[in-house]
Recover the amino acids of this structure.
C-alpha cells in the first residue's frame, strides 16, 4: 500500500512539474502584436542594469519573471542567448517555437570545426515544439546544439530543411530588435534598439555568461553570404496540431540580399557590392545608418566623436575584464599547450572562455571604422554638403579637445608580473592595438602590448615568447582563413608576416579639419 501511495505521489508531483514547465496551448503563429511584444522584451533587458544572463532574466529585471517555477535555470553564451530569449518568450505566451538542432559542412572534405567552415554549413534537422514540451528540455537542447555555426549558413539555402533566419532588407520594417548580427569570426549579438539616428544598439552574452551592450559601428564587418555573415531576422512560420510550415525566402516581404550584393540587382560578387548613391553611401556602415535613420541623417560631428570614443573605452574596459579573469586563474603561470587552442577538452574550454582573438579583432575594426567615419565627417564640413553639423569656431580644436577628454576619463590598467599596478590611457591602448596578445597563457604585459622596460617584468619562458611572435599574423585586422584550432607553433611560424598598417592616428585625422576662422578686418572709412 505504501509503495502504491508513494508511486501515486510521485506521479502527481511529476504531473505538477509537467504543468509548471510544460508548453501551454499554442497559437498558430506569431502575430505582429507578438513580435512587437518580443521587441519590447529584448529592449527592456538591454536597458536593465544587469550584467549576467541569470541576473538579467531574474525577477529584478525580467518583466516576464512572475510565475517562473523554481528550478528554471538560465545560462547562455552569445549564440544560445539569441535562441534562449526567443524560446522563453514563446513559452511564456503560448507561441510556437522551432529551431535547428543539426547542421553539416557544405563541403565535408577537410572541414573540421563547423564554426569555422570555409564554405559554410547547411541545415539538416530541426526540433519542433508541441504543446506540453518541457521548457527545460528546450533550453538544454539549445545549449547542446546551437552555436555560432548555426548562423554560418548561406541565406539562399532552403534545403533539406528551413533555416531559422532570413536575410533582411536594411530597413526599420525588416531589421528589428530581436534580430541578430553574425560576425563570421565566431560571435553573434542581438539587436536591441535602432535609434532615430540609425544607430543599431545590441546586447550580447559571452562564454562566462556575462552580458554586455554595444553599438554597431563596423566592428561586425560585412562578410560573404556563404558563411552567413551579417544581419539575421527570424523566419516566419506557422503550426497546426504540431505540424510546422516555414515561409520560403520568396514569400517574405522583408527578404533581401542587398547586405551582401549591394544595390545593383545584377551583381553576383559580394566583394564588389556598391552602396553608393550619387557618389555617397560607399561605406556599408554609413549606408545602414542612412537607411535606418528617421528622416534625413545629419551627423553632429562632435557628438559622433564623443560617442565613438566612449564606445571604444567601453570595448577596452570590457576586454580588461576578460584579461583580468584569465590572469586571476593564473593561466600566465601554467605551461602553454602545444597547439593553438589546446588538444584536450579542458584546454579548449579554457581557450573559449579566456582568449580574446575575436574581441581584439573587433576592437581594431571599431577603431579603423571610427577613423574612417571622422575623416568622412570632416570632408562633409569642408565640402559644406549639409550632411554634417558643426557650430563651433575650430573643428580641429574641438575634436582634439573631445579626444583629450575621453582620454582623461578612460583609465584602465593591469597588475604586472611584479604585482605593481600599471595604468593605461585610452590613447596608450589605441597605440598598442597591433601588439595586444589574445593568448590567455601570456603574461599581463604581453596581454596589454607592453614593450621596453615595461615588458622586462614579464617572467614567461622563451617558448611563450615564440608563441607570441608566431601569433603576430593572427593579430591583423582581418582573420586568416583556414587556421586550425590545432595549429602548432611551427605552423604559425610559417605564416606570412603581418602586413597591416598601424592603427589610424586620430591626431593626424584632426589636423585635416578646419581650424579657427580668420577674423575679417573691418574696412576703414
Amino acid at each position: 500500500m505504501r509503495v502504491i501511495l508513494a508511486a501515486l505521489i510521485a506521479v502527481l508531483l511529476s504531473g505538477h512539474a509537467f504543468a509548471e514547465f510544460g508548453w501551454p496551448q499554442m497559437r498558430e503563429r506569431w502575430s505582429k502584436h507578438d513580435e512587437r511584444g518580443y521587441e519590447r522584451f529584448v529592449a527592456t533587458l538591454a536597458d536593465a542594469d544587469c550584467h549576467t544572463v541569470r541576473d538579467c532574466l531574474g525577477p529584478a529585471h525580467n518583466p516576464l519573471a512572475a510565475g517562473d517555477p523554481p528550478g528554471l535555470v538560465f545560462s547562455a553564451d552569445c549564440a544560445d542567448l539569441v535562441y534562449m530569449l526567443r524560446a522563453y518568450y514563446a513559452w511564456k505566451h503560448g507561441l510556437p517555437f522551432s529551431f535547428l538542432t543539426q547542421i553539416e559542412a557544405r563541403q565535408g572534405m577537410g572541414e573540421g570545426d563547423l564554426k569555422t567552415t570555409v564554405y559554410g554549413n547547411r541545415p539538416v534537422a530541426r526540433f519542433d515544439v508541441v504543446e506540453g514540451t518541457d521548457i527545460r528540455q528546450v533550453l538544454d537542447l539549445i545549449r547542446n546544439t546551437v552555436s555560432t555555426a548555426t548562423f554560418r549558413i548561406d541565406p539562399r539555402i532552403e534545403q533539406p530543411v528551413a533555416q531559422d533566419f532570413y536575410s533582411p532588407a536594411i530597413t526599420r520594417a525588416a531589421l528589428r530588435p530581436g534580430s541578430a548580427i553574425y560576425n563570421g569570426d565566431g560571435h553573434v549579438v542581438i539587436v536591441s534598439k535602432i535609434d532615430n539616428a540609425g544607430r543599431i544598439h545590441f546586447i550580447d552574452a559571452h562564454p562566462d555568461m556575462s552580458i554586455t551592450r554595444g553599438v554597431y559601428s563596423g566592428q561586425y564587418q560585412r562578410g560573404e553570404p556563404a558563411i552567413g555573415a551579417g544581419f539575421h531576422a527570424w523566419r516566419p512560420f506557422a503550426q497546426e496540431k504540431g505540424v510546422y510550415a516555414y515561409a520560403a525566402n520568396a514569400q517574405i516581404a522583408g527578404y533581401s540580399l542587398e547586405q551582401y550584393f549591394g544595390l545593383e540587382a545584377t551583381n553576383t560578387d559580394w566583394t564588389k557590392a556598391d552602396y553608393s548613391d550619387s557618389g555617397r553611401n560607399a561605406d556599408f556602415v554609413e549606408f545602414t545608418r542612412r537607411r535606418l535613420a528617421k528622416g534625413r541623417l545629419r551627423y553632429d560631428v562632435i557628438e559622433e566623436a564623443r560617442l565613438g570614443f566612449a564606445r571604444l573605452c567601453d570595448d577596452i574596459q570590457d576586454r580588461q575584464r576578460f584579461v583580468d579573469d584569465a590572469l586571476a586563474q593564473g593561466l600566465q603561470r601554467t605551461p602553454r599547450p602545444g597547439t593553438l587552442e589546446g588538444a584536450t577538452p579542458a584546454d579548449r574550454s579554457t581557450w573559449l572562455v579566456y582568449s580574446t582573438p575575436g574581441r581584439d579583432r573587433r576592437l581594431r575594426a571599431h577603431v579603423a571604422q571610427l577613423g574612417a567615419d571622422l575623416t568622412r565627417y570632416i570632408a562633409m564640413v569642408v565640402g559644406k554638403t549639409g550632411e554634417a553639423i558643426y557650430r563651433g569656431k575650430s573643428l580641429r580644436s574641438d575634436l582634439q579637445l573631445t579626444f583629450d577628454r575621453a582620454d582623461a576619463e578612460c583609465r584602465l590598467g593591469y597588475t604586472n608580473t611584479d604585482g605593481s599596478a600599471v595604468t593605461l590611457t585610452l590613447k596608450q591602448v589605441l597605440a598598442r592595438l597591433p601588439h595586444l596578445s589574445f593568448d590567455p597563457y601570456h603574461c599581463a604585459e604581453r596581454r596589454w602590448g607592453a614593450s621596453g622596460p615595461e615588458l622586462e617584468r614579464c617572467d614567461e619562458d622563451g617558448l611563450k615568447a615564440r608563441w607570441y611572435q608566431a601569433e603576430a599574423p593572427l593579430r591583423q585586422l582581418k582573420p586568416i582563413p583556414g587556421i586550425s584550432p590545432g595549429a602548432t607553433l611551427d605552423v604559425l611560424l610559417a605564416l606570412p608576416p603581418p602586413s597591416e598598417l598601424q592603427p589610424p592616428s586620430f591626431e593626424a585625422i584632426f589636423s585635416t579639419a578646419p581650424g579657427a576662422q580668420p577674423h575679417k578686418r573691418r574696412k576703414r572709412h
Remarks:
- Residues 194 and 200 are 5 Å apart (CA to CA).
- The chain is about 35% helix and 15% strand.
- The two ends are 119 Å apart (CA to CA).
- The longest strand covers residues 98-105.
